[in-house]
Structure formats: C-alpha cells, structure tokens
Known about the structure:
By secondary structure, the protein is α/β, with parallel strands linked by helices. It contains 18 helices and 15 strands.
Amino acid sequence: MEGGGKLAYSGGGLRHETKLLRSFSSVEPRRFGLGLIVGLLVVACAYFSTAKFDAVNIAMSKHQTSSSAVGISSPVNADDSSKQPLDLGVQDEGALPKEEIKAEKDDGSGISDSGVLDASAAPLNPATQGGKDEVPEKDDDPSAVAVLPPLSSDSADTTQESGVLEDQELQVQNAVAEAANPPESSNAIQAPADRIPEVETPPPPTPEIQAAPVQLTPPSPEVRQADLEAPPLPDWKPLCDVTSNHRIDWCELDGDVRVLGTNSTVTLVAPPGADARTFREESWRIKPYPRKADPNAMRNVREVTVRSVSGAAATPACTVRHDVPALVFSDRGYTGNYFHAYTDVVLPLFLTARQYSGEVLLLVADFQMWWLGKFLPVFKSLSNYEMVDLDADPRVHCFRRVQVGLTSHDDFSIDPTRSPTGESMLDFAAFLRAAYGLPRDVAWPASAGAANATAGKKTRPRLLVIARGRNRRFVNVEEIARGARKVGFDVSVSEGGHEVAPFAELANSCDAVVGVHGAGLTNMVFLPRGAVVIQVVPLGPMEFVASYFRGPSRDMGLRYLEYRIAPEESTLLDKYPREHPVIADPGSVKAKDWVSFMGVYLFEQDVRLDMKRFRPVLKKALSRLRAKPKNN
C-alpha cells in the first residue's frame, strides 16, 4: 500500500497484540519464548518495510516540491534575477526504482514526465490520493508534503542535512510567497517559457450608466477680495467752476455735504483715508444766478460760501439727513421781468433738475414767495419735495450731492449737446404744456376736430395779439385785429396779467401770436407745436434783442416770421425830426451807452402798424399754418 502504510501497519500490530493477550494465559513457557522471537522478527520486518515505503514517499514528495518550485510563473524582481535557481536536492529519476517511477507517473498527481506541473491537471489534494482504503496524511500544514527534506545519498550527517533542509524550505516558502504576491515594480521581467503562463482574465463588462441630466445654470460670479474693498478715491478737482461758463459760476460737491442756510455755507467734509492727492481745503464765494457779467443783476443776489474742510469738528453736526441731491439757486436778479424769469431761472432749473425725475430738493436763496407762486406748477413738476427757504432755515441739511448754481447755456436757449440728458427747447415747451395741463400739442388745422370736418363746418385759425400796456404798445390794435379777421383769422387781444396759468391757457388755444419785441412774446412757450410767431421789431438797432425770440421759437417747433417797422410806423417820429440821429442814425445812439439806447428805443417808442404793409405778413402766416409742419 502507498501513502498510508505507517498507519496500516500500526493497525495490524494492534490486532496481533490483542490475540496474543487473549491466549497468553494458555501458552506454555516454551511456546511463549518461541512466540516472542517470532514477534520480534515480525516487528523487525514491519520496521524495515515501513522505512523502505517512507523513503519512496519522501522521494515522491521531494520531486513534487521541486516541480512546483520550477513551475512558478510569477514575475521575479530584477534584484533576484542574478541568483542561481534553488537546488532542493532532487534526485534523478534514474536513482529511483522503475516501479517507484511508474507509480509516480500513475498516481494522478498531474506531474508530467519532465517534472513540470501540468496546468490542465487538477490541483493536488492529499485527501484524494491513492486508493479508497488509504487514510490521508494528518499533517497540520497542508503544504507540509511539499517541503519534506530530500533524501541525500551523499551526506550521512543528519544534523547538517536537517539545517540545509530548513534553509531550502525557507527559500521555497519565499518563492511561493513571491509568486502569490508579485512586487509592483517597473523592473519586473517576463516569466521563463517553462513556467505556467498567466491567464489574463478579462475584466467584467462595465454596465453603461446613463448620467443624470445636469441642469445648466449660469455660474455664480466669482467674488474677488478686490471687489469687496472700497473703491479708491478719485483725484481731487476744484469744487467750483468759475471760468468755463460766461453766464454763471457753479459748484459740485459729492460726499459728506452739509448746508447751513442761516450763514449761507455749503461745506464738504473730507472722507476717511483722504490724502493730498484726493482732498484739499478750499473756499469759494458764489452767487447762484446766471447773470454774473451784469453787476446790476447780481447786486441783490445773496452770496454763498462753498468750502471743503479736513475734519468734521470744524462743521456743525447734521440736523436733517436727505437721501436725494440738492440744488441751490437764487430767485432774485431780474426775475421780476417775465422774460428773465424764464431765461434766468425756469429754463436753467428745468435743464438742471430734469435728470433727477423729481428726486431732488430745491434750496432757494433770496426766497420770494410772490414770485415762486407764479411758477408753482413748474417747481412741483421738477421736485417731489417742498422748497426750502435757505435764508430762514436754521437746520443743518446733510446730503451726498449738492450743486450750487444752475446749468445755463444761453438766453432762452438750450444746447442739446451740452444738456445732461439731451434735452432741447422742444422738450422744454412740451414740459411747460404738461406742467400747466394744456390740452393742445399741435396747431391748426391738425387740431381741428373730426366732428367739425364731418359736419362741413369751417374752422379758422386763431391769432393772439399781445397788447402791451406801457411802452412798445400797438397804437392801432383795433385796426390790426380787423385786418387779421379779413385775412382769415379769429382774433384775440390780451395784455396778460400777474397770473401765468390763465394766459398760458389762452396762448395754447391760439395758432399764431403777434407782438412787439418784449416779454409778452415769451408766452410763445405755451403755443402748440407748428404755430406761427410774428415778432414786430421796433425802430432802432434791435438786431441782437430780436434774436432772443428768433432762434428759440424755431427750436420749440414754431414757425417764425419777423416784421421790421418803417420810421413812419414809430412814434419816435412824432418826437424827433427825421434828420435827428435817433431817426437818421440809430447806431450812433447805441454807441453812446446801453442806458441811452434803452431809454430811447425801448421805453419811448410805440408802434403804429401800416396795415397795407403788414397785411402780406398775415397772409404768409396763414399759408404757413396750412402747410405741412416740418419735423422740428
């Protein structure tokens, strides 16, 4: 028997021993001695039989271990490649008996003739070796069979042989461990050709996972630390501009601005972190009225001190804080004159405040309630807040932005290229019509009602004759009205009064206006777009004063006509002979001084129109109304 002889013989010995014990009492002493000798022989035979079988088994085990070591196919580190192959002391097949070799080949262990493990053979299992009556080895370590020491015919020293076998056993274990856990090294080499090739198992197919739809949202803007920091302060520029505008000095203050009306001061306090580049201490004296070149006009205008200081301690604390900007202006000067009221305050205020859409506070120096009341609809349309009487208010008003002085381009004129938001005189006229609630935006015949046209009722354009009460009057106003009616106008004659609203309504109801040069023609701002303005220019060098209405009327979308009177149409011919310089040489009178010029040609002169000479102008006005209006 192979593979379990030791246990089998041991079992047989126990059975013989049992029989001997049972018959021990009946055996005779002579036979006992003989049996003892026979038993010793049997034991000796059993010993030698067992020793010989174990030798064969040991050889087979050693051969299997050597074959397993040779068949390792795992990569070997380059550091171990220079070492000699392990010599486990395997005997040649020739050293074994042929029967043992045949048994080795037929034991079904999967070892080929060349000693290389067949990869297709089933793995070795000690429990399945041999026949069905064989008992498996009861070794604690399953790999013990593979590391049994070989039999050496050259060495008789068992102690030395045991030490060599232990070293070889450690080397085999290291080789097996390296085969099981190959080192991860870029220096790995291919296994020898006689080793079992590695079978690369393809990775299992990865199931395709459909990505969930991603909502495309705009990325959040990156907030940089620089964005969180306060913007750098701009370079300092002077508070006031007293050179660029020939009509008015004005100042702009941004930051911590404090206004104390009782002492007429507007103060800018330096911001934190200000230095010589971003802040300077200054002081200016400004009269916020647009006639700075006219001493007579500026004489009664209150002066305002505009300054900048480094510390808040130099200024009084705020009493009232405002979230809207402020405009500081004066309503004195020539505002008693109807024309100057518009050209010096109303129009500049529109030009300056319109950009704020009502969110601005008006601070009025030289407060005149009688005058402000005349134009109250204008102020309410430009500001959502009550006006402040700067002279009488003891509070300290604090703002983030203040402008001292109004923006002004020219007399009764706007330059759209210089206006803050591109306003023009056309916008100014539309604003006034809206402020006073006037219904007509376009003149006759476009304004004629559809009902009148359907009924066949004829409509006539309406002419307003401005009759002055003191100077530059129409002496023959009734004759003028009759002549206009004959031409085809409906006529209204009016001088106007203190209240603006009633005269504004009258002017808006007309399609044409005629008047001698003067403040009364200012009411043309209420005319509907496309109306006709006829300016009668009195005797004298009046070209420059006539321009006050010539250009603005066209800028407001009106049709302008001009009529210059002859000397016979002036009442000056009743006072001065025809040879007098006032009649014969008006330029010499103007050359003397402005007072002489005004005294003669503006205050002493009235007009008596020659209707034969003036009638063609009325007809031309009517034809202008019937013509298609131009896009102004």
